[in-house]
Design brief:
9 strands; alpha+beta
């Protein structure tokens, strides 16, 4: 299970391995955000207002890479250049860490290569949402799923991608 709330957009992303991944835009406008901790229908209310992820891909959208200009590395620049050679027209969109993962989960981006340091707490909720949406979160070096509860909480480089 994972939950990410984006206050500036009033957007909620949430997922459960069995139910799938979802997004709610304008949470306050649709009445999400009140204290529902003792309300047994709270999940039903969330699901009733939510859109299942991934969203349909806009056929006119170019291949889209999520990244961070403030944490750009030479490896990230080389990765984006490789995607340009492979796909031609490539959009590069910068956003916060969790939001980058959510954009891939919702199908608004194709890949988020994180070729720099992050910690487990930076990625766990996003990975739950991405995986429940049908995306993959894999180690850059060996393609295995990103693992948690390691002795060292530093993540290896990883890639979030639509399958």
């Amino acid at each position: 299970m994972g939950v990410i709330y984006v206050p500036v957009d009033d957007t909620l992303y949430f997922a459960d391995a069995k139910l799938g991944a979802f997004k709610i835009d304008a949470c306050r406008k649709v009445g999400i955000g009140t204290d529902a901790s003792d309300n047994p229908q709270a999940l039903d209310k969330l699901l009733g207002q939510a859109t299942r992820l991934p969203l349909g891909k806009d056929k006119d959208r170019p291949f889209t890479v999520m990244g961070s200009r403030s944490h750009a590395t030479p490896e990230l620049e080389a990765y984006v250049e490789t995607m340009r050679h492979k796909y031609g027209n490539v959009d590069f969109i910068s956003a916060g860490s969790s939001l980058k993962i959510c954009r891939v989960a919702e199908g608004r981006a194709d890949v988020y290569p994180r070729l720099g340091p992050t910690m487990e707490w930076d990625t766990a909720a996003g990975q739950a949402i991405a995986v429940a949406s049908g995306a993959r979160v894999v180690r850059h070096d060996d393609g295995n799923a990103l693992a948690y509860n390691k002795e060292n909480l530093l993540n290896p480089w990883f890639v979030v991608e639509r399958q």
